[in-house]
Amino acid sequence: MSDEHIRGLRDALSHSPNNPPLLKLLAEALTQQGQHLEAEDVWKELLKVQPNGEDARMGLARCYFEQGKDQAAIVICEEILGNESDHAHANLLMARCQYRMGNLAEATDAYRNAKTKDGSIYEPAFEELLDTQGVGLNESDDVDDSMYTIDRPDIKFANVGGMETLKDEIRMKIIHPLAHPELFKAYGKSIGGGLLLYGPPGCGKTHIARATAGEVDAHFLPVGISDVLDMWIGSSEKNLTQLFEQARSHKPCVVFFDEVDALAASRRDMRQSAGRQLINTFLSELDGINQNNDGLLIMAATNAPWHLDSAFRRPGRFDRILFVPPPDQNARAAILRVLLADKPTDKVDVDVIARKTEHFSGADLKGVLDVCVEDKLRIALASGKPEPMTTKDILKAVKKVKPSTREWLSSAKNHALYSNQDGTYDDVLTYLNIKK
After folding, report:
1. Cis before residue 344, ω within 30 degrees of 0?
2. Per-residue pLDDT tens for 100-122?
3. CA-CA distance, 423 to 317, in Å (whole number)?
4. Euclidean distance between the first and the last CA atom of the chain, given in angstroms as a whole number
5. Domains in the chain with CATH codes
6. Positive/negative CA dihedral, 182, 187, 193, 199
7. Confidence (pTM)
């Protein structure tokens, strides 16, 4: 970033001093220029406007690190990890701070956590530093429960826009059995089981899973691919078993597997026995062969349910499969209100925008606003005067973004029409207004 660019940002901020995007751009520009003391002040100003802003907190922590204020950086990283324990880059920065302070064991643990949460993180020079200190970074250690963080979500169905049919299905499968266990036991229905959510990416499957846990005041254990898969033979199965054991010790607990098709792909498509063994372990844990799974609520999400092994669809496993469609018009309006809450606007009519964004996912709507913000920033940087976003501005950005759900819906339509003998995917046809 040039000095001229920084001057332009400062000039723009003089007209809109509490503008979060401008404050963030200036802080990042100063950081890139190595002006960390000045960047620190700007990050702090941004935090006054957005006290819970994750980007601002990470930016300030990095500024502290660059200035050698390791303890201050650690405090911020601990705050971030307290709210979001799987934040890979907070773990990575924590590792660097701890190493520089001479806390080698803590640095190693934090770096391992960073790599576990984000498989793309690889710092060979830093790993060599840790290894040469004799902390054994590359040793194959036993997995312990601390790898999996369980929390109690503070969101409920009221915080999820739309999806009323889906909420009703979840109430019958999960919420009512917990609230009225005696009624369900009278009919021989156990408390637990599995729900498989499928639909286009970016449509809120993870959000509805967290809200489900919040609705019943249950613990929530999110599971990603990197939490289970391991290059060493037998380690993936051990990870999966320990994960279930931890969930059982925190009943009632909602265990949510994201991208479950990566862990439960059809065994017919597998050439290696290792993948088959992992699936067998998964099925065994779902069945609770050696443990009692009452009070253990299993939810999973996938964009490709047709790739799952058919054994996962049997009763007691993922015996209910629910379609999570792109948000409807009312849900899109609700999403837009949330996304626009911290942005400068001028009488934006979210209902008009919602009508013009059919098939847009929540992620697509965020992309629309990102495009709009970039357009407004270009104008602001040229004129030195920031202007709020209007309905017209956002509708202009809508034309530049294509809904990502279309490709998925096209593929799902083919499966629903030609590989749907049991009617599993009829909801897709209903959504598309197609009659079989």
Report:
1. no
2. 887 887 888 888 888 877 767 77
3. 18
4. 58
5. 3-137 (1.25.40.10), 157-323 (3.40.50.300), 329-398 (1.10.8.60)
6. negative
7. 0.62
